[in-house]
Every structure is written in structure tokens, then in C-alpha cells.
Amino acid sequence: MTTLADPVPGGRPGDVERATALSGELSGRGVHGVVLAYVDTAGVARVKTIPTAKLASAAAWGVGMSPVFDTFLANDSIVTTDVLGSPDGDLRLYADLDHLVELAGQPGWAWAPVDRITQEGERHPGCGRTFLRRTVQEAAERYGITFRASIEIEWAVAQPPGADGKFVPAVTGPAYGATRQVELSDCTADLLAALAGQGVEVEQLHPEYAAGQFELSVAALDPVAAADRSVLVRQTIRAVTRRHGLAVSFAPAVLGQGVGNGGHVHLSAWRDGVNLHAGGARRHGMRPEAESFAAGVLTHLPALTAVTAPSPASYLRLKPSQWAGVFTAWGRETREAGLRVVTGTAGHRDQAANLEIKPVDLAANPYLALGCLITAGLDGLTSGARLPEEITGDPARLGAQEAAARGVRRLPVSLREAVRHFRADEPLRAALGPVLADAVIAVREGELDAVAGLDDDQVAAAYRWKY
Question: Which pLDDT value is given to residue 1?
Fold first, then answer.
């Protein structure tokens, strides 16, 4: 499987032959180009495209792209680190043929995620997909643990923005309401058809809380495939919606006030085909490894927000009593806690039990987010960490003394605070490596500089159509 192997100059074993066959098949079905996709440090999906006939050449020698994009901001300005952000150098993009799909939402196109290597054939230390794959491989080798993950996708559907960039909801029905489903019925039916045609297993699609907002959930996969799928699904949502004359925003906050778009992560640890979050003697059926993993995520949650909530607009969404999960707290099915333990329905818990990490949005690079979450969990597993007292209800209602006694703290209220926690979190920075960790810090600080002096409405507007 190419997903599990680093690219090499000349092509991974069998890839050139496979790409040659795929090129012929795709061309025969009227596919003229292939989108090569990755996500930068700011969380923006960047692409290069090639004619279908060039797929075999790309499988052998990659496609060039500058490393400067690792320090791009969402507004396309560039910051620097000691090794990134200059006009020098080149990388090679290698498509993962295991995840190449014909785009039902964009006739004439196929899509594939890429790994990035240097011209010398070495891993690019700024490649988030490579970081996640390496993290997953190390967990399997060291602990015998594999993972299943999925990323919820929330977005707002709007009228196409004019020159002023304002947000005008395309649907008017109430939250979770049948009216809103009817108003966008043709578009969402086409979306489901396109996703099915691309082999995406959709669990749910429904109207959400905020104006014009919808949510889509997909089946869990291994973490690399789950991150790939998150990028693919968003590309498909955007393409199908555009064909219906509408626009979408996945930004954490489309307005300065109110509920924003989340990208909650569901994550479970498995060993030898057994879900470690079910069938155990610890609270709510967790096995010892699952509890320690959850405790590790909870401990690192303040620093993780620099990766999972990486935009200044993220902190317009992360408000108490809005089900955004803004406290270092956990509970069974407690949607106000930063970490929600999902047990699933009796009779299905061995498959359904998982952790939901709430303070995540779709400005996050999904490869970095999943890799850092797994790193945090494994740190808890290594130390044998235990979860603190469980909470119920809204943590915002706890008095200061009771909250302190339970270890319930407010997560960072700004990106600047999140970066301070990230700087102090040695395990996360060590796992990312100095090149990628420095890029995270530089890009976050660049985003802060880009919105200095703006009020909440202006911050929301600055990122509204970037994601």
C-alpha cells in the first residue's frame, strides 16, 4: 500500500505501472486532470494539477512545489523561520494512488492526496501527512495499537459573496429543522450522490444550529485516510454547492458572534481488533490503555488548541455554553466538556465507543491535528495517566473553588495564549520536530499580526472565505 510507504525518486515499487494503467482508465472515462492536494500549516488546502496523461511521470518523479507554502498565512502572505519561508528550494509532490478518486462533484477531474519529499528523496520535515503516518506507524510498532478516526464537518451555505464579502445565509429554516433540509434538498441530494460515487461512507447529513449551517459525519478510518477524507469531502461539498449557484464557508466563525463551524474529531485506540474504549473495567467500559490515552489528550489540550484551533477566528467559536468544549474536563456524552467519552448504544459499544475531542475546527490541518492528538494520548499511555473526576452538565456553572478541585480550567481564550501553551509543551514539539513545530509557531504568530487591531466582526470577515 502506498499510503504506508514514503515516496522515492523513480517511484514506489509498482506505482509507475499502476499509474500508467490508471491514466488510461481515467482518460477513457473522460477524466482530463488530476488534483494533487495537501494542506498547509495555516490549514488551507493547496493544490497542483496535472493532465491525466502525466500521472505515470508524476508517480516516478513527483511534481515540483516550493517549500515556502509551509509558512503561508491564510491571506497568502508569507512568514519565515530559520529554514522555511525563503524563495529557495523545491519539493516533490507524490500522489498516494491508494486514495486517488474520480471526482463525481467535478466531472473531468480526479483527486489524490500527496506526500512531499525533498529533491534528494528524503522526507520533508514540514509535511503534515508524513508526520501523521510516522506517528501512526510508531504507535503500532511500540504499543501494538492502531487507531480509527473521523472528522465531523460543519459548514455554512450562503449566497455568493459580493465585493463586500458579506455572509447571507442561503437557507432560512430553524436549527435542525425540516424546513432547512427542504430548502437545500436538491443540493444535498447531489452531494450525497457525489460522495457515494467517490466511495465515501456518509453516516449523517443534517441541518445544524447556526444560520445556514449543515453538518456531515463520515465513517471512521485509519487516521491518514480519515485526514485525506476530510480534505476530499470539503472539496466535494464546495464543488457541488457551487454548481447549485451557492457558496460555502468552513471557517471557524462566519460572524463575529454566535455559534461557529466545528470540526470535532472522533478517535479510538484498538489492539488486535479490540476496541480499547469498550469492554474494560474502568469508567464507562474503558480499558486501562484507553483511560490513559484519554488522560493524555486532556492534559495536553491547552497546547493542542494551537494546532486544533489555529486561527484567530477559532477563538470567536470557542465560547462557554455553546457546546464548543472549552474546558479541561471530560464526561460521558457531555458536549460542553473538552473531551467527550462516547460509549455508543448497548449492544454496539465494542464498535462505537470512542473519544470526541471538541475544541477542533476546520481551519486545522487535519494531519497535524490527528498526529498531535495521538501524540498526546500516547504520552498519557506511557505515563499510565488517570483521568480526573468526571463532570456532568455545563462546566461554566461550576464555582471557582469546585472547578479548581476538579482540575477544570478554561482552555486558551486567544490564539496567543494557545501558542504560549504550545511553546511550553515539549512532547508535542518534539514529536513534530523543530522544522514543523517552528512553522506552527511562526504561522500562528503571523496570523495574530495580520488581524492586530481588528474587532470580532472584522476578524470573522478576514477568514470567512479562506476555509
Answer: 57
